[in-house]
């Protein structure tokens, strides 16, 4: 089906766009007013960075929410010991070191998870260097006679995430929401066009300033909403339109019962969007 895409403005083949990413439990709030090209590009430049960011991966693992490849993330998977050696934590087999070979003055030292693994590594390394078999056998014998030391290292994990990329997802959600309900009107809105240009800049791999459009949700709004969500005993994403005393229209987005929330300024003319305050959207998070 051909549509006029809300992002690029061109008439192209439509695709199914999840307004809130499917990877965080939205299977119901979708639209087909996005072309295949923009859906793919925005998914790679905005959605993927959001759903795979450290705090969101923590929530996805906690709630068992699968990603696009069908996998539930394991956040605490790669760490380091006090000496900087890398340790991988596997849910099935437990923690394992990434083997490491150090070469100095024609001698080798190997760190591995077992004698068998160490022997395989050294054997392969020496054969590549065309070391005589007699010397290889000597090295393997030395490994065999080495005492094994068991240890329980303290594992350190380091994770970073870009807050700017994080907030950008909320801007994208708010822009799509406005176009779903008020597409023809919103195409004429100056702020709507600014948000569109910002998203297209990021889609193209560029950077644009959007700090004036994404703000914290006011406490007087977020507190009662979050309290109500907690009382419901359900996991919900909430999209809530708000018009302030200056007639500015904000779309407040509260993900995971408000644990992650921002308000996006979408228009300076709230009265141009009749009945929008009644278009509150609640999405029950599903696996």
Q: Kindly state the percentage of residues in helix.
A: 25-40%
Number of helices: 7
Structural class computed from helices and strand pairing: alpha+beta
Amino- and carboxy-terminal Cα gap: 29 Å
**Shape type:** elongated
* Number of separate strands: 13
Largest sheet: 5 strands, antiparallel
- Average residue-wise pLDDT: 89
Question: Oligomerization state of this entry?
Answer: single chain
Q: How large, in whole angstroms, is the Cα Rg?
A: 26 Å
Which stretches are low in confidence, meaning pLDDT under 50 for 5 or more residues running? none
Taken in chain order, the helices and strands follow as EEEHHEEEEEHHHHEHEEEE
Widest sheet: strand order? 9-12-11-10-13
Strand content: 15-25%
Number of domains: 2
How does this structure look, described?
The chain is α+β, with helices and mostly antiparallel strands. The protein has two domains: 2-73 and 160-284, no CATH class; 78-144, no CATH class. It is 36% helix and 24% strand. The protein is built from seven helices and 13 strands. The strands form four sheets. A five-stranded antiparallel sheet has the order 9-12-11-10-13, with helices on both faces. It has a three-stranded antiparallel sheet with strand order 1-2-3. Helix 1 (36-51) packs across helix 6 (190-203) and helix 3 (115-128) packs antiparallel against helix 4 (133-144).
């Amino acid at each position: 089906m051909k549509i006029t895409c809300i992002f690029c403005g061109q008439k192209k083949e439509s695709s199914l766009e999840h307004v809130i990413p499917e990877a965080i439990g939205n299977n119901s709030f979708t639209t087909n007013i996005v072309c295949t090209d923009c859906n793919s590009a925005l998914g790679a430049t905005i959605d993927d960075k959001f759903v795979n960011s450290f705090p969101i991966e923590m929530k996805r693992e906690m709630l068992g929410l699968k990603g696009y490849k069908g996998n539930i993330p394991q956040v605490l998977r790669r760490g380091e010991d006090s000496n900087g050696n890398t340790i991988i934590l596997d849910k099935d087999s437990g923690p394992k070191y990434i083997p490491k070979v150090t070469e100095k003055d024609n001698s080798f030292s190997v760190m591995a998870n077992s004698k068998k693994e160490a022997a395989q590594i050294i054997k392969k390394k020496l054969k590549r260097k065309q070391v005589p078999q007699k010397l290889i056998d000597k090295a393997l014998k030395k490994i065999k006679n080495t005492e094994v030391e068991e240890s329980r290292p303290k594992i350190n994990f380091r994770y970073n995430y870009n807050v700017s990329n994080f907030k950008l997802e909320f801007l994208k959600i708010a822009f799509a929401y406005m176009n779903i309900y008020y597409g023809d009107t919103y195409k004429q809105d100056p702020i709507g066009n600014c948000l569109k240009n910002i998203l297209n800049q990021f889609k193209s791999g560029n950077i644009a300033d959007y700090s004036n459009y994404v703000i914290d949700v006011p406490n007087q709004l977020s507190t009662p909403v979050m309290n109500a969500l907690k009382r419901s005993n359900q996991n919900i994403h909430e999209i809530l339109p708000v018009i302030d005393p200056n007639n500015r229209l904000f779309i407040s987005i509260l993900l995971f019962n408000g644990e992650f929330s921002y308000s996006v300024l979408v228009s300076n003319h709230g009265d141009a969007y009749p009945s929008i305050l009644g278009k509150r959207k609640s999405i029950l998070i599903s696996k």
